[in-house]
Amino acid sequence: MRKFILAALLLGSTLMVNAQSGTNSPYSQYGLGVLSDQTSGFNRGMNGVGLGFHEHNQVNYLNPASYASLDSMTFIFDAGISGQITNFEENGVKKNANNSNFEYVVAGFRLFRHLGMSFGVVPFTNVGYDYSSTGWVNASDKDVYYTNTYHGEGGLHQVYVGAGWEPVKGLSVGANVSYLWGDYTKYITNSYSNAYYKTLTRTYNSKINSYRLDFGAQYTQQVTKKDWVTVGATFTPGHNLGGSADMNIISNNAQTNTSDTIPFSIAKAHSLPTMYGVGLMWNHSNQWKVGFDYSLQKWGSLSYPRRYVNTKDKNDVLDVGGAYANRHKFNFGAQYCYNERDRAFLKRVQYRLGASYATPYYKMNGVDGPKEISVSAGFGIPIMNSYNSRSLLNISGQWVKNSADGLIKENVFRINIGLTFNEGWFKKWKMQ
Predict the structure, then answer these.
(1) Which of 401, 384, 403, 381 is nearest to 393 (CA)?
(2) Helix, coil or strand: residue 241
(3) What is the largest CA-CA distance in the chain?
């Protein structure tokens, strides 16, 4: 099992780098792409809630303070995949798209007494779209039509290592140190049915290599004989990610078979926003666990590279202009399990429900992008055999709706599958 886990971590890292994007959304062309939920299998069944959760048998990297609660005798390894069907609707026209994605690979274990550790690879953003539009050049003369083609791919990935420490009973603190890397390629091609017109292509490229820091805290208080309440908080400082944003305007003349390229570039074009999160979790007899999270990502104070026409000399330039908005997200989720240590299979199954609402983090021509509403349901199914009864198969279904007036509506139906191996690595056996 140890060799399998180490191999899976290496495989997961490779897949994260080379896998196709986990989205088909045309909205991923804005900003840095579609933001990942950054949740593991058990969080997804509750639609991403987790800032106040501190599980002894799950890796909850939403709040690094939770690592302090990991079991002292086990090594936990968790990997997840997803598959989704997306329905797009615009002006009464509907279209479906399918894709799948290798989501995450994480691990956690108790390092010392009251000190837990975790590491893994998770996605940060996804870019993936391919669509086109056509029309007549002159409405009164329908001899020549144009085609605009939009394509983009890429995204950012995150590899992290973190620790959580419980200095006093009930209070834990933690931190994740991450390396962020990735790139994106986007282009827009304007072509015509008549070779008399030039074909224009604008390409956008950026490559990012930087870091990310996440800090967390949790405090648990027993309020009755059977009830505990946990308050969690997280903080991520914002900073410039470095990396340049490059744009090329390419003009092709089919009549003369010539091509001209005009390059533009801006240094240190992207930034990571300052992020805050607070969460509350109520635990009743270790059967009911109900949580609520609120998170704020301050994208609105950041700028994004964009192309515009300089009003003074009418030249095309690449500049940094405001295109972001602060993102607010609310999550609610619950889990029920009769008794996770019961010998009866059905009494050990974990049942989960969740819902969330989020505002967009980007603007489209000065107008806010689509808002997101989602719900989920899932199960934590125990894997019971002669040598291990602590591992879990986490399965959940999720529906996500992205919509705004006058914009494309998206309905996403997603299946998430996560496998949590819980191995007894640190037990000492005695001979009799």
Answers:
(1) 381
(2) strand
(3) 96
Bridge partners (DSSP) of residue 156 are 125, 182
pLDDT band at 311 (very low <50, low <70, confident <90, very high): low
Residue among 387, 356, 353, 393 nearest 371 (CA)? 356
Task: Report DSSP state, residue 12.
Answer: H
Q: How many other CB atoms are found less than 10 A from the CB of residue 290? A: 18
Give 105-138 pLDDT, tens digit per residue: 999 999 989 999 999 999 999 999 998 888 888 7
Element (H, E) at 277: strand 275-284
Place of tokens 């993102």: 327
As a whole number of angstroms, the distance between CA 366 and CA 385 comes to 57
The amino acid present at 407, given as its one-letter code, is L
* Least confident range of 122-136, 166-180, 191-205: 191-205
Return d(Cα 231, Cα 282) in angstroms, integer: 9
CA distance 177 to 161: 6
**Phi, psi torsion values for 229, nearest 5 degrees:** -125, 130
Burial (CB < 10 A; 0-12, 13-18, 19+), residue 266, is middle
Task: Give Rg (Cα) of the chain.
Answer: 24
> Rounded to an integer, what distance in angstroms lies between the CA atom of residue 156 and that of residue 127?
9
